[in-house]
């Protein structure tokens, strides 16, 4: 006897769909393993395709695939701080951090290698991609501060805080994801308020912003 159940029709993926499939597979692997431990065979197996097909879409091999995956992750992280300009500033910052830290949590052990340039396959291009995320986050925060023409002290304060967020995220992973994410988020928000206050003591522009934001809680 033969089964009367219909055979699922094979659907050929478009170029963009196939490329997205391969990037998703690569990101899934990089989420839990550093790039040095991920091979093109691993990506092909995770995507359910052949190794030659991976090369067809990424003829530059593993380096090209890694950089493309990094750009995909960077695009997602850029949107983390793209919070609507509504409600109190610190509440907005908290929601942005919730998205950022959820990304860190999801990508787990691969976060350092994937986003912080901690990989032997890193190049000047990968460094530029990661730095672009930091700069985009800083620009989002400065817009939330309504700083139309931020001076060097204010810009430095924001960028230093973003570096602190990255460092805290890596330490959080190293410490077994403790404290809980909501505590980490609140601590980082408090840190932001603290560094702004410290800069305000030396910078009139930041002092004016802190004064304007005093009732925005």
From TrEMBL:
Residues 16-76 form the HTH tetR-type domain. Keywords: DNA-binding, Transcription, Transcription regulation. PROSITE patterns: HTH_TETR_2. Transmembrane segments: none annotated. InterPro entries: DesT_TetR_C, Homeodomain-like_sf, HTH-type_TetR-like_transc_reg, HTH_TetR. Coiled coil: none annotated. Residues 39-58 bind DNA. PANTHER family: HTH-TYPE TRANSCRIPTIONAL REGULATOR RUTR, TRANSCRIPTIONAL REGULATORY PROTEIN (PROBABLY TETR-FAMILY)-RELATED. This is TetR/AcrR family transcriptional regulator. It comes from Streptomyces hintoniae. The lineage of its organism: Bacteria, Bacillati, Actinomycetota, Actinomycetes, Kitasatosporales.
